[in-house]
Design goal:
single chain; alpha+beta
Length: about 325
């Protein structure tokens, strides 16, 4: 009897060990040729979990593109409005123009900084050429809420609009940051100018740049003085600088044609046009090449009357409107 009970107890223990397993322990796999049956609901969950990282990555990429597009749009709209802010107007008018044109595109701190120091602000300096747009060259994300945008301000004249091309480019770097649900320009730094000609003469004192062909590399500059005489008089009543850009092959015994540029104050030019004085004996006066808010730049009458060597080249250069006015002051270092 005891032996029978012992055998029955051993059988029950063996059956319990075969049927019971701890939670999470692997069960017996399917027999060869069989497939494991998985609940459809669990299969869908497993599939969603596998796809989630790809979907998160795709969503992050879409947001990155949307943020960059928003930053680009702010910079491009800012570039279109530059010509509407005249930096040479009276300070109160400049400040009002900045608030109207830039107020929704730049941060209040940057706007206030520009209003305190107009020399650091971008905008329109002369009537022609004018800042037409900003061409974006590179956009770099510097943080979750900021981009650095490098580009060029393209300056154009009416001739450039008709014939294509540009009169000057100025490097510009902008920082665009997110403020709430908007993107705004929070910092701007202006770089050097680039001109179409491979060789340029820059005059920061009076504010103009002259583009020259490559053959003028190594030119020299000679500064003389023009004199304005009153009608019927012989004593000068007005004077000003006459800047001669001289070809590198010019020689004392074989002079070439210079490019002479007369510099007038705006008041002097108005007096000359009013006939208050004249320059030289020519029946016609100088020809205006360009102006900024302080000076007028002009070509002397009959400047090539002797037809020296190279005069045809100079005529061709001048026909291309090579002089670009800019704001008088120091030229930014290269």
């Amino acid at each position: 009897m005891n032996q029978w009970l012992s055998a029955l107890l051993a059988l029950l223990v063996a059956l319990s060990a075969a049927l019971w397993k701890p939670a999470g322990a692997p069960g017996p796999g399917p027999a060869e040729g069989e497939t494991s049956a998985v609940a459809p609901e669990q299969a869908a969950v497993d599939e969603d979990r596998a796809a989630a990282p790809e979907e998160v990555e795709e969503a992050a990429g879409d947001q990155e593109q949307a943020d960059e597009a928003a930053a680009r749009a702010v910079v491009e709209e800012f570039g279109r409005r530059l010509k509407n802010v005249s930096l040479t107007a009276p300070p109160d008018i400049v400040a009002a123009g900045m608030r109207e044109q830039y107020g929704d595109l730049v941060s209040p701190e940057l706007l206030e900084r520009w209003q305190r120091d107009l020399s650091a602000a971008p905008g329109r300096v002369v009537s022609s050429p004018w800042p037409d747009r900003i061409e974006i060259l590179a956009v770099t994300r510097t943080s979750e809420d900021a981009f650095e945008v490098k580009g060029e301000i393209i300056e154009m004249t009416s001739m450039d609009v008709v014939e294509g091309g540009f009169s000057a480019k100025q490097a510009i770097t902008l920082v665009v940051t997110r403020s709430g649900d908007r993107w705004q320009i929070s910092d701007v730094s202006l770089g050097e100018y680039v001109y179409p000609g491979p060789v340029t003469y820059r005059n920061g004192e009076y504010g103009f740049v002259l583009s020259l062909p490559e053959s003028w590399e190594g030119y020299t500059v000679v500064t003389e003085t023009w004199e304005g005489l009153p009608v019927g008089g012989s004593e000068p009543v007005e004077t000003g600088p006459l800047i001669r850009i001289r070809h590198p092959e010019w020689r004392e015994d074989a002079p070439r044609q210079d490019i002479p540029i007369m510099v007038f104050t705006v008041k002097q030019w108005e007096a000359l046009e009013a006939g208050e004085f004249h320059i030289g004996a020519a029946p016609i006066g100088p020809t205006e090449l360009g102006r900024n808010d302080q000076y007028v730049f002009a070509l002397p009458a009959r400047y090539n009357y002797a037809f020296p060597e190279g005069y045809e080249e100079v005529e061709e250069i001048l026909q291309g409107s090579p002089l670009v006015p800019m704001k008088p002051g120091p030229v930014r270092p290269r």
